[in-house]
Design goal:
Layout: H1 2-26, H2 50-69, H3 77-85, H4 89-104, H5 108-129, H6 132-143, H7 152-167, H8 174-203, E1 208-210, H9 221-233, E2 240-242, H10 246-255, H11 259-270, H12 282-298, H13 304-309, H14 317-348, H15 360-372, H16 376-379, H17 385-400, E3 403-407, E4 418-423, E5 429-436, E6 448-453, E7 456-458, E8 461-463, E9 466-470, H18 486-504, H19 523-532, H20 535-541, H21 553-561, H22 567-585, H23 595-606, H24 622-625, H25 635-653, H26 659-671, H27 678-686, H28 693-698
Parallel strand pairs: 5-9
Antiparallel strand pairs: 1-2, 3-4, 4-5, 6-9, 7-8
Length: 702
């Protein structure tokens, strides 16, 4: 009887094991991707696969670290630093897919998984970085790094990892580590909640529904057609729907003659997360600011900004403030002049009101047309999405020799996503590029670059990256292709610059390959915007979607002549948001902290005029409360100094495609960008420190 029981138990265990193996096999994350170029098998992945894959990924990494810390051999680069650098492959693969899709193509199930898995992942990360044995081994390698015959790349990886562990609390006593763990867990959940609230406020909680065609007065036909299509999708046939996505909202603000409706849609936009409803973000912001300060204090920093900027090129919050205020000085008076100009137009037309924030786009567009005989609707026909995309590919080809071949055989997560194979001039592979163009209910606002696999060199062989650009552009209609406005054109070039950075990255260690300071990371993206608007480049790619004719020289001249138009507004709103971010994160005491009052005080302190709001108000400032840019939104304008100076080198050479400069920029600022500190790499390219003059001239501030 006993033997029979044992047989049954054995059969049951075998059946269980086989079932488990079968389930493991069914989950696409548990085997190598059997797809061209090893891209994720989006056509086979569903929401049921994520949690088991996350759990297995953490289990595998824990096992790898357990082997590492119990290695009886003396800690070395290979058995400690490299082993840690290569750990967690499955977990990394799952994270790449899940978190990218949660931002680009989410649903209720994805959000529920995120709420479930986020605190578990936070604990997993803390368990690693607060592992005494692991830190002891890394510290041992660090202390002997200069006497261990390591090359410069290895020493940099050692130093970066040691610094990571210190900044994650490895040197703290146990009780302080436990406090840090609680803060990290709470911050991760608050950030998640902030993002979910903002997504709902943007995509679900507001629609401007127009029933009377008279309320469409002033709007171009393409904008009206897009609003009609949006109404049809919402089951509101015969009406017109405008949303808070910028391709819908901005044209309405630019052209709609109905001032009350302009106010309604803009108020819907700037009140996101601040409506006292279930999606209100005020309490979340206040709590995050407090917790970040507590974290900074635990780690020995005066403020959270001190903690963050210590790793950046700027080094201290004081340097950031000095930099921002040097630009604020000339930017604010310029914005005030723009207000005067628009108010004169309002008065001249008999408008009995003072310019308000929701009037800015409308009257700025009118002033631009009056001063430069240029309006947005005249440009759009030359900026079909296909032409702009092909134009940026052309620029990359002329600069770097790379080619882009469209693929239709790669799995995608949404039908409108396009994929491209990227190759060197000699046919050598570079990587795969995904581009996701249009808004949808499950996509976050804005545009960003991300990826599904990072470039790395292992045993002399490069593993090519899989890069993704995610945007929210004007959709095509039944009669016209997607026609972009100028902001969308520069946005696509911008994100493509990030993409090139990822595609060109070289390095043997994940910790350092392509890894740059936050205030360097926008250089590769922002420099590409310069080519988007260069006359020679425009002539090549800006072609009328109907006739195929190149943009006429007269129109290109108008674009150039109006280059500094509205720069007071654009610079001021950007700087205001940057200063608001810095003010939040240089706080040293957050007792009785009120978000709205703090924001008002911050803006009053710098004298922001009532006609302009900061580019992001607190309750929808996703960059700093759900996007990794806390105490770092300034980086866009910081990197603008670098990109203006860098592009100026091309212009001064007499050839915007100068091959020698392009090769140096690719080598030092893209491919090898993680080899040393940001300014060191920039000087290798430029041969000198960057000058602020090209930026000031470009924005009309000098």
């Amino acid at each position: 009887m006993k033997n029979i029981t044992l047989i049954f138990i054995g059969l049951a265990m075998l059946l269980f094991t086989n079932c488990k193996k079968e389930k493991m096999t069914e989950n696409p994350f548990f085997s190598e991707y059997n797809t061209p170029f090893g891209v994720p098998p989006f056509d086979r992945i569903d929401t049921t696969h994520y949690v088991p894959a996350f759990e297995e990924g953490m289990k595998q990494q824990n096992a790898e670290i357990e082997i590492l810390v119990n290695n009886a051999e003396e800690p070395s680069f290979e058995n400690t630093i490299l082993a840690f650098d290569r750990s967690g492959k499955l977990l990394t693969d799952v994270r790449y897919v899940f978190f990218n899709l949660k931002e680009a193509n989410t649903n209720d199930q994805m959000q529920a998984i995120a709420r479930r898995i986020d605190p578990v992942l936070t604990k997993h990360r803390d368990d690693i970085y607060l592992n005494e044995k692991l830190f002891a081994r890394i510290k041992a390698v660090y202390e002997k790094r200069n006497a261990s015959n390591l090359d410069s790349a290895q020493i940099r990886a050692v130093e970066k990892y040691f610094r990571d562990f210190e900044r994650m609390g490895a040197n703290l006593p146990k009780d302080k580590q436990e406090e840090l763990r609680k803060i990290n867990t709470e911050l991760s959940m608050l950030s998640l909640n902030f993002g979910e609230n903002l997504l709902t406020e943007t995509n679900k909680n507001f629609k401007l529904v127009i029933e009377d065609s008279a309320d469409l007065a002033g709007l171009p036909s393409g904008v009206i057609d897009a609003a009609s299509d949006a109404a049809d999708e919402a089951g509101l046939q015969g009406k017109w729907v405008f949303t808070l996505s910028k391709p819908s909202m901005i044209p309405f603000l630019q052209y709609a003659e109905n001032r009350a409706l302009r106010e309604k849609i803009y108020r819907g936009y700037f009140m996101r997360g601040n409506n006292g409803n279930a999606n209100d973000n005020n309490a979340i912001v206040a709590k995050m600011v407090k917790l970040r300060l507590q974290k900074a204090h635990l780690l020995g920093f005066k403020s959270y900004a001190d903690y963050i900027i210590d790793e950046n090129m700027a080094k201290t919050p004081g340097n950031v403030y000095d930099f921002l205020m040097k630009l604020w000085g000339p930017a604010l008076p310029m914005a005030k002049k723009e207000v005067v100009e628009m108010q004169k137009m309002i008065d001249r037309e008999g408008g009995n009101f003072k310019l308000q924030p929701w009037d800015w786009w409308y009257y700025a567009e009118k002033v631009r047309k009056e001063k430069y005989d240029l309006d947005d609707s005249a440009l759009r026909p030359y900026f079909s999405l296909d032409n702009v995309r092909d134009g940026m590919f052309m620029v990359a080809n002329k600069l770097y020799g790379i080619t882009f071949t469209k693929r239709t055989d790669l799995p995608v997560y949404e039908k409108d996503v396009e994929t491209f194979e990227v190759k060197e001039a000699d046919g050598k592979p570079v990587g795969i590029l995904y581009i996701d163009y249009y808004p949808r209910a499950g996509k976050g606002a804005g545009a960003w670059c991300t990826g599904f696999r990072s470039a790395i060199t292992e045993k002399g062989k490069r593993i090519d990256p899989i890069v993704s650009l995610v945007c929210n552009f004007t959709k095509p209609t039944a009669d016209t292709p997607a026609l972009l406005n100028w902001d969308e054109v520069t946005t696509l070039f911008h994100e493509f610059g990030h993409g090139l950075h990822s595609l060109f990255t070289q390095g043997e260690y994940y910790r350092t390959a392509g890894d740059v300071a936050r205030d360097f990371v926008e250089l590769p993206s922002q420099i590409m915007e310069n080519w988007a608007g260069d006359p020679e480049v425009l002539k090549a790619y800006a072609r009328h979607f109907k006739t195929g004719e190149s943009m006429p020289d007269e129109l290109i001249s108008k674009i150039q002549n109006s280059a500094v138009f509205n720069q007071g507004f654009e610079t001021t709103e950007l700087l205001a948001a940057s200063l608001l971010d810095m003010d939040f994160h240089t706080l040293t005491d957050t007792l009785n902290f009120n978000v709205g009052a703090f924001e008002t005080g911050s803006m009053n302190k710098i004298g922001l005029i009532s006609e302009i709001l900061p580019r992001y108000r607190s309750t929808y400032f996703a960059h700093i409360f759900d996007g990794g840019y806390a105490a770092g939104y300034y980086v866009y304008i910081w990197a603008a100094v670098l990109d203006a100076d860098a592009f100026n080198a091309f212009k001064e050479s007499g050839n915007v495609y100068n091959p020698e400069l392009a090769a140096k920029f690719r080598k030092y600022c893209l491919a090898e960008s993680g080899d040393d500190e940001g300014m060191v790499q920039y000087r290798k390219f430029r041969g000198q420190d960057p000058s602020v003059d090209p930026l000031l001239k470009r924005r009309g501030l000098k």
